[in-house]
Amino acid sequence: MNAVFPGSFDPITSGHMDVLTRASRIFDHVTVTVMHNARKQGRHLFTLDERLEILESATGHLENVSVDSFDGLLVDYMSRSSQDKGIIIRGLRAVSDYEYELQIAHLNRQIGDTETVFIMAATRWSFVSSSMVREIASYGGDISEMVPHASAQALRHKHADIYAERDMQQRAQRESRLP
């Protein structure tokens, strides 16, 4: 059976990767789908093409995972494909996620006759979200454990001036401690 793991992935986090890796062990094939919402255009840090590129790099080691994008309703995406898309995968971090995701799952079943499987993110990633990672990176903070390498590189590139300044300050602090 196949599955679809939809999201905005702006950028993909270690929590997303945890859910995706575990889903890839359960399902024959998993398609990570960047859902492009025209109403949210301009609110993403990364363009759709950049997010797809990051995802391709981050998921390249998972043989039964592919990357795609879609603009519109997820249930339409699920039904338009020539191959069976199967199940919707949703990751959960906390009870508050469940309440929201449950409503979406019921709506998807009602309008598109699709089933949703929830996979709990590992506890160590329960606090990590794309928005928090973006904020930490915007201040030059260390996000290397919170995101796959491809996301970390892309975030450092987006905020290159901030990271360069932070690196200079840290170098100056180290040098001032030398005898």
Secondary-structure map:
Blueprint: E1 2-7, H1 14-26, E2 29-35, H2 48-59, E3 65-70, H3 74-80, E4 87-92, H4 95-112, E5 116-120, H5 130-138, H6 149-158, H7 160-177
Parallel strand pairs: 1-2, 1-4, 2-3, 4-5
Helix pairs in contact: 2-6, 6-7
Summarize the structure in words.
- Pathway: Cofactor biosynthesis; coenzyme A biosynthesis; CoA from (R)-pantothenate: step 4/5.
- Substrate binds at residues 8, 40, 74, 90.
- ATP binds at residues 8-9, 16, 91-93, 101, 125-131.
- Helix 2 (48-59) runs antiparallel to helix 6.
- The chain has a domain at 2-126: Rossmann fold, CATH 3.40.50.620.
- The chain has 7 helices and 5 strands; from the N terminus they run E-H-E-H-E-H-E-H-E-H-H-H.
- Helices cover 49% and strands 17% of the residues.
- The longest helix is centred in the middle third of the chain and has 18 residues, at 95-112.
- It starts with a strand and ends with a helix.
- It has helices at 14-26, 48-59, 74-80, 95-112, 130-138, 149-158, 160-177, and strands spanning 2-7, 29-35, 65-70, 87-92, 116-120.
- It has a 5-stranded parallel sheet, with helices on both faces.
- Strand 2, helix 2 (48-59) and strand 3 (65-70) form a beta-alpha-beta unit.
- The chain is of the alpha/beta class.
Tell me briefly what this model is.
The chain is α/β, with parallel strands linked by helices. It has helices spanning 14-26, 48-59, 74-80, 95-112, 130-138, 149-158, 160-177; strands at 2-7, 29-35, 65-70, 87-92, 116-120.
